[in-house]
Amino acid sequence: MYVDHITLQDLIKYQGVKCEVLQGYYYDGNRDMRIRDEVKKLFELRLKYKKEENPLQEIIKLILNSIYGKTILSPIESKITIVDDKDAIRYAIRNYNHIVKFEGLDGSDKTIFKLTKSICRHFNFCPLGVNILSMSKRIMNEVFCTAEDMGLQIFYQDTDSMHLYNEDIPKLAAEFKKRYGRELIGKNLGQFHSDFAEITPGKQSLAYKSIFCGKKTYIDLLTNDLNEVAFHCRMKGVKQDVIALTANEMFPEAIQCYYNEDKNIHIPVGTYDKDSEFSLMKLYKALYDGQEIAFDLCKSCQPCFAEKFNFSITTKTSFIR
């Protein structure tokens, strides 16, 4: 088993493991912590833009997410080269040992080559990357293990989120503060807050019913003090509007729903209450019961494109998942 120092500490603390170190790398100098300051700057900048409803906050979010991916980048094993047609034969002769495939570019005098790329010069910053991953797990372990020690029920957990009873949150936050000396609830780095979108601004949404089908596939029926109803849906690889469209087609007798992109929630139409039968809930119940359902991603309001090796682009008419 390969671990870094953060994971090893957590294994000992939370699992009580005893281990023998066979071999490894260690650093006898000071650790470079400058990345913390840079991440904090970006995080605060995103909060500022988000408060202003500036779409730049999405760019900052992508930059923050890419820090981990870039530091632990997998080897790049191929590269693309474009040469003039008049030089293509000479280029092929000189590089034939590395060429995977080649093709002429439509409407041009260029040829595109795909070649194998040696990983001898590949570089990443995995000592930092594995620390980022381990620290993200530690942040979650602190909360999960505290909840488990208290006998609280966690219904679903993901990389950075969990589902638990709303009334248990104050008890969990108090115990967390006692153990770690930090505030659990908030919107700063390392803190947690409700991720459910508000149906009406200023009115907190809570999950009245939930169906968990598997990893990154679940639905929450949201309601608030005004007895409004909406749905928080997740299904990895399937667009939100396709989920609603498929549910409405499969269960036309149920309350129909549509996806509100601005609020990032699904809204039912017609007359209903929180105990009505909704098409979305019936869809997830069918998945939970083991029914196989095909989703055509091309039914989305956004077109599906297929980009070919020679850079030509076609519109897909069907993409079943």
What would you note in describing this structure?
- InterPro entries: DNA-dir_DNA_pol_B_mt/vir (IPR004868), DNA/RNA_pol_sf (IPR043502), DNA_pol_palm_dom_sf (IPR023211).
- This is DNA-directed DNA polymerase.
- Its EC number is 2.7.7.7.
- This protein folds into four domains: 5-72 and 125-131, no CATH class; 78-116; 136-172, no CATH class; 206-299.
- The protein has a three-stranded antiparallel sheet with strand order 1-3-2. Strands 6-7-8 form a three-stranded antiparallel sheet. It has a two-stranded antiparallel sheet with strand order 4-5.
- Helix content is 35%, strand content 20%.
- It contains eight helices and twelve strands.
- With 321 residues, it is α+β, with helices and mostly antiparallel strands.
- Helix 2 (34-51) runs antiparallel to helix 3, helix 3 packs across helix 5 and helix 7 (240-250) crosses helix 8.
Helix content: 25-40%
**What pattern of helices and strands is seen along the backbone?**
HHHEHEEHEEHEEEHEEHEE
Distance between the termini: 35 Å
Major β-sheet profile: 3 strands, antiparallel
**Would you count the extended β strands for me?**
12
- Rg to the nearest angstrom? 25 Å
Shape: globular
Number of helices: 8
Low-confidence stretches: none
Alpha-beta content class: alpha+beta
The structural domain count equals 4
Question: Kindly state the mean pLDDT as a whole number?
Answer: 93
**Portion in beta strands:** 15-25%
